[in-house]
Design goal:
single chain; alpha+beta; 24% helix; 21% strand; DNA-binding
Length: 272
DNA sequence: GTTGCGTCCTGGACGC
DNA sequence: TGCGTCCAGGACGCAA
């Protein structure tokens, strides 16, 4: 399940492979999620950016190729002559250097779009995306104000991508555990918001430095696994001892998403 | 406008 | 061994 660290790892590997390459041909799976791939034919790739969990590749002509990997999306750039589409290939772009950018996605939760640069009206989550966690203008006060606008559970807000971009279930659980905030809390103090931001930055930076978290599907551009799964303190560890207080971590579903937390370290704050 | 639930989708785990 | 059921979760649509 690619989150910010996994997408950033891919972006760093993908950017030098794509910049200045022209798209000779392309194919996309059935509509509506993948069929815009051929709209990039004839364009030349520019810079590759990351917006939250989205990869945004500049295209000549003032357009962009937007990719979201969903849960099981994978990118690779094999040599065209040595590659053939697999059963889960959802899109490909043949490049002018004899290679092909390939988007495989088993569960089809990913998506792609070719849009006018900056026009994300067809991608509502991207259009309403919050600030990047590493944005220097983002501080605890800004995050606190953003979280304060809603009475939804703090973890649900994080997953919505609106208060802050790029956080998914793994890093949300890790950060909330690290700063001692209960995932079902419907309000946080200024101090908690500040601690949450510090925790998010720490777990996301660790994720990037470990090449991402591979629980099952995620692979780097070269097909290798990340190593951050060996450094998780909370996510997926229900029934194990909390590394801080030795209480047993618990798992519970809030708003349809499984959360793992420590019932001792992460006390739920009453709704305001 | 906000909140929360259902849906999409398929491989893997698990129970019988 | 084989079958059926459940679970995982990001984005989005929709009802309340």
């Amino acid at each position: 399940m690619p989150e910010l660290p996994e997408v950033e790892t891919l972006r760093r590997q993908l950017a030098p492979e794509l910049v200045n390459r022209r798209v000779l041909d392309a194919w996309g799976y059935l509509p509506p999620k993948f069929d815009q791939a051929p709209a990039a034919v004839g364009a030349r790739f520019g810079a590759v950016q990351r917006l939250g969990k989205y990869l945004v590749a500049e295209l000549s002509g003032g357009r962009e190729l937007v990719l979201h990997l969903g849960m099981t999306g994978k990118l690779s750039v094999p040599t065209t002559s040595q590659w053939a589409p697999g059963p889960y290939t959802r899109a490909w772009w043949q490049l002018d250097d004899g290679r092909t950018l390939v988007f495989d996605d088993t569960r089809r939760f990913g998506r792609l779009a070719v849009v006018d640069a900056g026009d994300y009206t067809g991608l509502p989550t991207l259009a309403a995306l919050g600030p990047d966690p590493f944005d220097p203008d983002l501080d605890g006060e800004v995050l606190w104000r953003a979280l304060r606008r809603s009475s939804a559970r703090v973890k649900t807000q994080l997953l919505s991508q609106r208060p802050i971009a790029g956080v998914g279930n793994i890093y949300a659980d890790e950060a909330l555990w690290r700063c001692g905030v209960h995932p079902a809390s419907r309000s946080v103090t200024r101090a908690q918001a500040s601690a949450l931001l510090d925790a998010l930055r720490a777990v996301l930076a660790a994720g990037i430095s470990h090449g991402g978290t591979t629980l099952r599907d995620y692979r780097t551009l070269e097909g290798t696994s990340g190593e951050n799964q060996d450094h998780l303190d909370c996510y997926g560890r229900a029934g194990h001892a909390c590394a801080r207080c030795a209480s047993l971590l618990r798992s519970r579903v809030y708003d349809g998403r499984t959360s793992t937390f420590c019932p001792t370290c992460q006390r739920q704050r009453p709704a305001r």
